[in-house]
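Team,

Forwarding the record for the chain on the shared tracking sheet. I've put the sequence and predicted structure together so nobody has to dig through attachments.
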Amino acid sequence: EVQLVESGGGSVAAGGSLSVSCTASGVISDDFDMAWFRQPPGDECELVTSISSYGATYYVDSVKGRFTITQDRPKNSVDLEMNKLHPEDPAVYYCAAILLRSLPVGRRMASCGEKGFGYWGRGTQVTVSS
């Protein structure tokens, strides 16, 4: 069974930087992308960024140029570096191993952790103070 555990996150002033990391146990097929989702309070879960087994990346427009995803696939780890954090970025950030093609149109869903898309971590809080 695949289990994902996030670390990092926390609180930072607007314009600052934070990193979150994730390590997975178990075997993750190369069909799965490693990804970070986020869910602000009262809002949907959105795909922030993903990276395929061969390194192809996706970023939602709102984080392009500010966030960077990296992975060490043999170690089943994925990191997210977040720079120039905005007051709109606070959320619970979830690590996931996802079948990208299975995501709904718009790559958003009601709640992070929904079954049927892959494997999820439990999330880590990111807070940005203005």
